[in-house]
């Protein structure tokens, strides 16, 4: 565990220890310097996989913590940290946090919604293009020497096709100009269409029926878990592309084999952790494009999210 003293730039630092679960955050000179100037003590995890153990070992002296999506914070962790007042999470999702337990203990939570929306939108567009242009099968065919004979399907054009978006948040909005640049016609489903009069919206089933490309941009919650399952996937046009850069659990994972057996023409791209370990990769098959939850963690967006989480954490504690 690394111990870092304060630079003394702030006359009256926030009393207590701030724990940083992200060993790479000290490389962000601005964000880390702000922590050192703002707290009496900064401690940084020696390794990511030791972060929770090192955090809980510090006990009541911790008044704030900055974590990422890999750190699961629940009652067991919180019971060891009775002095915790603010938890800053570098990222948008909160499914790694027990929000009810945090509320019960009076711990305020800050996240960084929208900060990485451009990064996720660009990654989504990359996945759409890779699926449409059959990049995976073309790459394999070129490597094996089969050339075009090794590609079971020809590439397709995106111009004039309908792109259905589930969600109308910052990422979906950042994706819209990219889709339109390729001549695609967007159609959006949101649970609150009246809040988005500027967007072309439609009902959930209509979006599925019309979408040559379906892109998922929803938070994981009880209402969205398993939302995209065999019934809705069965409504998609022939050869549709399904891209999920949100949480994988928005897909009905248990029913994926059934859905794919019924619609083998569909092509999937998913960005999340643990796709091999939980069987999702095997269920999707070799034609799927997968990435390990990297859509929102470009160098630029990661630094911006760290900056945001650190500043919000300090602002909530500053007298």
TrEMBL record:
Keywords: NAD, Oxidoreductase. GO terms for molecular function: glyoxylate reductase (NADPH) activity; hydroxypyruvate reductase [NAD(P)H] activity; NAD binding. Residues 35-316 form the D-isomer specific 2-hydroxyacid dehydrogenase catalytic domain. Signal peptide: none annotated. Residues 125-273 form the D-isomer specific 2-hydroxyacid dehydrogenase NAD-binding domain. InterPro entries: D-isomer_2-hydroxyacid_DH (IPR050223), D-isomer_2_OHA_DH_cat_dom (IPR006139), D-isomer_DH_CS (IPR029753), D-isomer_DH_NAD-bd (IPR006140), NAD(P)-bd_dom_sf (IPR036291). One of its GO terms (cellular component) is cytosol. It holds the Pfam family 2-Hacid_dh_C. Belongs to the D-isomer specific 2-hydroxyacid dehydrogenase family. This is Hydroxyacid dehydrogenase. It comes from Streptomyces qinzhouensis.
């Amino acid at each position: 565990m690394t111990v870092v003293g304060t630079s003394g730039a702030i006359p009256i630092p926030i009393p207590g220890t701030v724990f940083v679960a992200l060993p790479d955050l000290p490389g962000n000179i601005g964000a880390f310097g702000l922590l050192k100037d703002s707290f009496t003590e900064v401690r940084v995890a020696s390794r990511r996989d030791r972060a929770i153990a090192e955090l809980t070992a510090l006990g009541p002296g911790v008044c704030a913590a900055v974590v990422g999506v890999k750190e699961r914070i629940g009652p067991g962790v919180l019971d060891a940290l009775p002095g915790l007042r603010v938890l800053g999470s570098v990222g948008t999702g909160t499914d790694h946090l027990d929000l009810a337990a945090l509320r019960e203990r009076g711990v305020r939570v800050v996240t960084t919604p929208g900060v990485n929306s451009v990064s996720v939108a660009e990654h989504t567009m990359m996945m759409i293009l890779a699926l449409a242009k059959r990049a995976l099968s073309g790459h394999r065919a070129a490597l094996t020497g089969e050339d075009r004979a090794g590609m079971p399907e020809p590439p397709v054009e995106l111009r004039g096709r309908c792109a259905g978006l589930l969600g109308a948040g910052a990422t979906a909005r950042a994706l819209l100009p990219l889709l339109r640049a390729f001549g695609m016609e967007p159609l959006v489903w949101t649970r609150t269409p009246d809040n988005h009069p500027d967007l072309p919206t439609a009902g959930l089933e209509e979006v599925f029926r019309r979408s040559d490309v379906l892109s998922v941009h929803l938070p994981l919650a009880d209402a969205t878990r398993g939302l995209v399952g065999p019934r809705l996937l069965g409504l998609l046009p022939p050869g549709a592309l399904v891209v999920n850069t949100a949480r994988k659990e928005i897909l009905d994972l248990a029913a994926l084999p059934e859905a794919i057996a019924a619609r083998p023409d569909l092509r999937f791209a998913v960005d999340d952790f643990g796709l091999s370990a939980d069987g999702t990769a095997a269920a999707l098959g070799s034609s799927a494009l997968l990435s390990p939850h990297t859509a929102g963690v470009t160098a630029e967006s990661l630094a911006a999210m760290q900056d945001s989480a650190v500043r919000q954490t300090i602002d909530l504690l500053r007298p």
